[in-house]
């Protein structure tokens, strides 16, 4: 130990060792929940493919994978990862309760446990997550933090309806609001340092009002509520496509352009999902239009956001450093091409297009996971550096 400014200070080398040890412990503590979230992702995708008649091995509890394909993806994977990301940012032990509860409940569902206990675990996790979100508002009161807190409340409402036995097509608008408002809030956070247009805020509030009014109305008046929700989704997508920072960063090469491409294509899918929600409401009117609406949003929009932010988010959660490489475009192109095929099959009632689109969407997610691992495991400059 050495003295400095009247206090005992550790040598720099020792401080670096301690920092490395702390990072390893943090990584070890977070990794299991990331693994459980990935297990929910795999079981959800597997169940979705089984629903479309893809000839895959059916696990012992595969019926739950098929029935709860959507909740495993939305709550088990996305909800757990979002909760873990928020907990990492705040650092308090209790903020890790939401991803623990949602992961535990979702894994129980994937393991074949019958209702209602796993559903209540997931609902409890979302309720604690709402408390975490409003804690963030207390720390930093801003439009984007309030918007993400409202998104958390939408998740609570949706999961509350789930515990009461509501059908998933009636719950979906609330889950769309949870993910949509969370992503919009994150984009507002990143855009807050840019000079806003005088029209940006009024237009945003108008689009947001349409969207939230529709979501709330859908509980009592399904058809007008869903159509208004779809109108709000289209309006928010147009607002994001015009005012988001991605329109500027797409001019910059490397990672900024990659992220911008993911974001802008995602906004297109969000708008298309809104259009089809308007056209095909009520969502129980047919399985294939329902499939087009949901997967345009949850795959086209949400996974585009995941792909775009993954080089930043996953390393931050697990204390890794990721390297951008152009090969990351592979899973982006594959995802969108497959989704075009799937939605075409839905709307034109072409079975093979629907099925192969779903298969290739699963392949795109697998390639994404491999590329993400490679961006962490393979050092910059490889293999040229290794040959020297």
Distance between the termini: 40 Å
Order of helices and strands: EEHHHHHHHHHHHHHHH
- Oligomeric state as shown: single chain
Largest sheet: 2 strands, antiparallel
Total strand segments:
2
How would the global form be characterised?
A: globular
Fraction of residues in β-strands: under 5%
- What value does the Rg take, in angstroms? 21 Å
Lateral arrangement of strands in the main beta sheet: 1-2
Give the proportion of residues in helices: over 70%
Number of H/I helices: 15
Mean pLDDT: 86
Q: What structural class do you assign from the helix and strand content?
A: mainly alpha
State the low-pLDDT regions, or none.
1-10, 12-23
List keywords for this structure.
single chain; 388 residues; mainly alpha; two-stranded antiparallel sheet; 15 helices; disordered N terminus
